[in-house]
Amino acid sequence: MNSQVIKSAHRTQVISLYRRLLRIGYQWPKWETQDPDDQVFLSDFIIKKTKKEFRTNFNLSIDQVPSALDRARKEIKFLKVLQNDILKKQFVLQRSYSEAAEEVNHQK
Q1: Which residues contact 76 (CB under 8 A, 6 or more apart)?
Q2: In 20-55, which positions are buried (b, 16+ CB within 10 angstroms) versus exposed (e)?
Q3: How far apart are the first and last CA of the chain?
Q4: Which of 13, 49, 50, 101 could be 21's S-S partner, Cβ–Cβ 3.0 to 4.6 Å?
Q5: Cα–Cα distance between 72 and 77 in angstroms, integer?
Q6: Phi/psi zone of residue 93: left (φ > 0), alpha (ψ -120 to 50 degrees), beta?
């Protein structure tokens, strides 16, 4: 099989995974910290890491591409689980704080 055909077959998968990782990074919630110099957001880290990894792996051989694609898929799964867990905890905290605030208001 021609190497160009193989590269084009992987190209769509690579672009799709790249976009998905960037989208996760852009959608990641950002929290403000007290010190403006200390604001390192996980979303920025995800975006920078994704760009760096894909640039580094640009010239992989045909044999190495499937393992790199698998690593990217695992990264996506991990980030989705982490993101869902964080959002669930944030929802629970907001709900408990709002319930506590209602109790205080009813006691007045």
Answers
A1: 17, 20, 21, 24
A2: bbeebbeebeeeeeeeeeeeeebeeebbeebeebbe
A3: 78
A4: 50
A5: 9
A6: alpha
